[in-house]
Predict the structure of tRNA N6-adenosine threonylcarbamoyltransferase.
Amino acid sequence: MAFESSCDETSVAIIEDGAKICSNVVATQIKSHKRFGGVVPEVASRHHIEEITICIRDAMQEAHVTYDDLSAVAVTYGPGLVGALLIGVTAAKMVAWAHHLPLIPVNHLAGHIYAARFVEPIAFPALALVVSGGHTELVYMPEAGTFEIIGETRDDAAGEAYDKVGRVLGINYPAGPTVDAMAAKGHDTFHFPRAMDKDPNYDFSFSGLKSAFINTYHHAEQVGAKLNHDDLATSFQSAVVDVLVDKTLRALKHYPVKQLILAGGVAANNGLRKQLQSAIDQLPATELLMAPRKLCGDNAAMIGAAAYVLFKEGHFAGLDLNADPSLEFDWAPDVIK
Ligand code: ATP
Ligand code: MG
Ligand code: FE
C-alpha cells in the first residue's frame, strides 16, 4: 500500500511487485485551491485529513484486498508541504504499526521517475528529466537507487512558469494543460528568450521567460493592443520545450545512457513529448521512456513503484519517520534502519 500527500493530491494505491497497479485512488483538491490561484498549504492539510481514510478504503475495495494481503506500506516523506506530508506519513505509520508491516520511506521525485516503470522496467544507466510544479531537474542514475542531480532550475520550475503565465491569461490553476492545448493552435510569433540554452551546463532558468511574457502582455494592454492568446501560448511553450530538449541532449552527450526518462506533471505536455521523441529518435543507443500521461501528476502508484526497489533490499524506516519538506534527492539514507 502506497501513500502520497505532498501537495494537493491525496492518493492511496495498491501495487503488486512494484509493476502492477491494482488500484490508484487520487482525490484532487484543485477545486478548493482554484479561487486562490495556487495551493494554500493549510487548506491542503485539512483536505488530506478528510480524504485519507476514504482513499484507503476505496483503494482496498477496488483492489479487492484486506490488510492481511499487504506486505509493506510506502509513503512520500518529502519534499513537499510539511503539513500535507505529515498526513500521509502519519496514516502510513498507523497502518504499518497496526498491521505489523514494514514502512518504506520514498522521495517524491524518485516516485515521479518511477511512474515510467509502469511502461517497462528501467534500464541503467538512465537519465531522467523531471519537470513538475516545484522542480526542473536532470537526474543521472548509474544504477537502481542512485540519483545524481547534474542540472536544475536556478529559479522557477517549468510547471510554476506555466501556472504563472496562465494566470496572466486568465486561466485557472493549474494552467499547464490549458496552455498546452492553446499552444497547439497558435504560432511562435513572439520569439521569447531561450534562457541559458547555449550555456555549457545542464541548468535551467524560467523566470526571465515568465517576465518577458508578462511584460509583453502588459505592454500590449497599456497601448490597447489585442494579442492573440494562442500565439502567446505557442511562443511560451516553444521557449520552454526548446530549452528542456536542448539541455537534455547536451546532457546525453556526456552521459550516454540506455534510457532517457521523462517524468513529472509537465511530462504530460504534448509539445514536450513530441519534440523530445523526435530528438531521441536520432539517437539509436538511447530509448525514450515517458511516464504514462495519467501517471505524470501526483499519485501513489508511482510511490509504490519506487518503494519496491527499497523493499527488495530490505531498506525500511522506523516508526519515528518524520516528514522532511526540503528532503534532498537521494535514496532516503538517513531514515533507513
Ligand atoms: P513537485 O512534484 O515538484 O513537488 P507538484 O507535485 O506540485 O510539484 P506535479 O503534480 O508533478 O507538481 O505537476 C503539476 C504541474 O504540472 C503544474 O504546474 C501543472 O500546471 C503542470 N502541468 C500539468 N499538465 C501539464 C501540461 N500538459 N503541460 C504543461 N504543464 C502541465
Ligand atoms: Mg498537484
Ligand atoms: Fe509532484
About this structure: The mean pLDDT is 95. The radius of gyration is 20 Å. The pocket of magnesium ion (ligand 2) is lined by residues 7-9, 297-298 (CB under 6 Å). Strands lie at 2-4, 9-16, 20-28, 73-78, 103-107, 126-131, 136-141, 148-152, 259-263, 287-290.
